[in-house]
From TrEMBL, chains A, B:
InterPro entries: CitG
Protein name per UniProt: Triphosphoribosyl-dephospho-CoA synthase
Residue intervals passing through the bilayer: none
Enzyme class: transferase
Protein keywords: Glycosyltransferase, Transferase
GO molecular function: glycosyltransferase activity; triphosphoribosyl-dephospho-CoA synthase activity
EC number(s) stated in the UniProt entry for this protein: 2.4.2.52
Alphabetical list of PANTHER family matching this protein: CITG FAMILY PROTEIN
Keyword Iron-sulfur in annotation: no
Length: 279, 279
């Protein structure tokens, strides 16, 4: 038996995430969006592997992330796994350091540098990521500027941790970075403790994560009220009051896409795989 | 844009193959078998990647294959992609030599050595591959003996090409090895020339391959008559006389599993990806 290394567990986590169904509002084994299809996620996962390999090494984290995104973008669906890679890259690094724990990954995040922040910005040049306008006065730090923002980042001496800390209140992935991935590790524990095929466990934990907190990607796209309502509907599906399959159909039809919840699900799958989740 | 290298195209080919649906009788995006599920193929593809990377290098082909199989086997479904890897490994090597053509891959196959044959036999130790009993007198060369067959291989001076040549009449993948992969390249051309999402093209070419020739894996499991009938039913589905989805349900229910046809489909997807098939 050849053991999968950390980078390959991360790649497999991306694949198991998209295979899990129903994951209401997201592309999954049973559902495509119009221009974003299942195979785009397969190609995105395979393409991200060289960057994930860098994450398992000891070079700069920002470069690993930027490389993973560049490879992920080598398909025609657009942004498939940007957020998931932002979750996975520090987790892979922590695992490779033998410290896959909240404290271990928090140390990885806090150790990021100004260079990491600059390469993180460059990653936005590879793919169109849905982000809101920056607050007034912070236009120079708009991630959509890509490498053009580098002087503003360097002038302010912002590390990648600093950059993500500034959006932690509005972005669920950034919040995980700042807080040591509490939701990711919690979800990983529930995946490990549950039963059945890995994609089924992933679908269940996706619903639990969504029910527990509004998805920040839905907030950005549809506003806080729609996001709260989506979480309430996920809760109803978990409680057996509605059919998760029907909810999946409804969310796709309504354009409700809890992408951040999917990102955390991928991270949780990675942690669970590292802890021996059988596939 | 970061271009996928040959090994990653091969890995993606494995993923696109299993995503294509309906592929009657096989695990696909919509169907699982009882103990062999979609996620086993995902893990098999990811696990095979280090071996595929060796195939893209310049070390022994047999070792690349054995390593790919060992990694593939790191999941609980059993044999997911043994035959597909036997198709892909020489194709990846030919591509890495800039000679992805019938002549190029035939040269790769003919250049295999006795050592390659021995490591090929070792690959059977990693996973339970469905093979029939060897002909009378050839028991010492039964692949199921694994490395125990090494003395018999060396005594006879058999290369991997020689080994496969001996089963070319009963095994569709071995026949490709001996003949320069004519069906694989033909299918790749049809994939490239067709339209639509890559998994849909894969499903179509799977039916075409099956309609054109009986699947040797079905022959081994169910006999030549059942295999001929399966091909006739694939032809009827292609001709619009029956619904391919219904055929998929029927084949799964009847235990008709055209695995060799799926192996060639994976090879054809690889060649098509190398030639620019968009995903």
């Amino acid at each position: 038996m050849v053991r999968r290394d950390h980078a390959r567990n991360a790649e497999l986590a991306l694949l198991l995430e998209v295979a899990g169904t129903p994951k209401p509002g997201n592309v999954d084994r049973r559902r495509d969006h119009d221009d974003l299809r299942f195979e785009h996620f397969l190609a995105g996962a395979v393409g991200s592997a060289p960057g994930l390999r860098l994450a398992g090494g000891d070079g700069p984290i920002g470069e690993a992330f930027e490389r993973a995104v560049a490879g992920m973008a080598e398909q025609r669906g657009g942004n498939t796994q940007f957020g998931a890679l932002l979750v996975l890259v520090p987790l892979v690094r922590a695992a490779s350091e033998g410290a896959l724990s909240k404290g271990g990954v928090r140390r990885v995040c806090e150790a990021t540098t100004v260079d990491d922040a600059c390469t993180f910005y460059r990653a936005f040049e590879h793919v169109d990521v849905g982000v809101p306008d920056p607050p007034a006065g912070l236009e120079p730090l708009d991630v959509r500027r890509g490498s053009a923002a580098e002087p503003a980042i360097r002038e302010r001496g912002l590390t990648l941790f600093d950059v993500l800390e500034r959006s932690a209140s509005v972005d669920g992935v950034a919040r995980e970075w700042v807080e040591g991935f509490p939701r990711t590790f919690g979800a990983a524990e529930r995946i490990t403790a549950s039963e059945g095929p890995a994609p089924d466990r992933a679908a269940r934990v996706f619903l639990e994560l969504l029910a527990a907190e509004p998805d920040t990607f839905v907030v950005k796209r549809r506003g806080p009220e729609a996001a709260r309502e989506a979480s309430a509907r996920a809760r109803a599906a978990l409680d057996g009051e509605t059919d998760p399959e029907a909810l999946a159909e409804a969310f796709v039809a309504e354009g409700i896409n809890p992408g951040t919840t999917a990102d955390l699900t991928a991270g949780a799958l990675f942690v669970a795989l590292e802890r021996g989740l059988p596939v």
